[in-house]
Amino acid sequence: MVAWLNKKRALNLATTFMLGAMKFYQKELQLKPYPRGFHLITDAIEKSLPEINQIRIGQLQVFIKHTSASLSLNENADATVRSDFESHFNMMVPENRSYYKHTFEGPDDMPAHIKASLLGASVQIPITNGKLNLGIWQGIYLCEHRNHASGRQLVLTAFGN
Fold first, then answer.
1. Is 7-95+103-160 a domain of CATH 3.30.43.10?
2. pLDDT exceeds 80 at position 101
3. CA-based nearest residue to 142, from 73, 60, 67
4. Is the pTM of this model over 0.90?
5. pLDDT by residue (tens digit) across 44-56?
6. φ, ψ of residue 145 in degrees (nearest 5)
7. Ranges of each domain in the chain
8. Dihedral of CA 130/135/137/141: which sign?
9. Which NCBIfam families match (predicted)?
10. Cα dihedral value 147, 148, 153, 158, nearest 10
11. CA nearest 157: which of 32, 43, 4, 11?
12. With b meaning 16 or more CB within 10 Å and e meaning fewer, what string describes 120-156?
């Protein structure tokens, strides 16, 4: 549906078009570099796409354009949840293993790709009456799996009526 959109326009500003009663908005969000770990980015997403408030019933898809970071929905109130996630994933997918062949960018390279594959590159959240319909304790996480990552790019696509 959105293939006809000029790529440069879609990258630089929120793009809208109507299909019947449906509205579509798409924007790229450049996140600042985050240290390795799990970081709440819900507020940055909501501020970046204020057009969400024009959708009564719909969906927001958040997609990360990287293979060594991921997205997740989880607990947003207690910071120890985020540190526990980091500890668990570091034990589950350790660095410096002799069986890793893809190590060109360092010992965190292949483990970062594995962790990103386990968690995924996108999340989808319902929009109800112009707001993200998250649970009271839910937030959107950037899961940064690299030790020294650059800023990450997200594609935000909101649609509905």
1. no
2. yes
3. 73
4. no
5. 999 999 999 999 9
6. -105, 0
7. 7-95+103-160
8. negative
9. TIGR00149_YjbQ (TIGR00149)
10. 30
11. 11
12. ebebebebeeeebeeeeebbbbbbbbbeebeebebbb
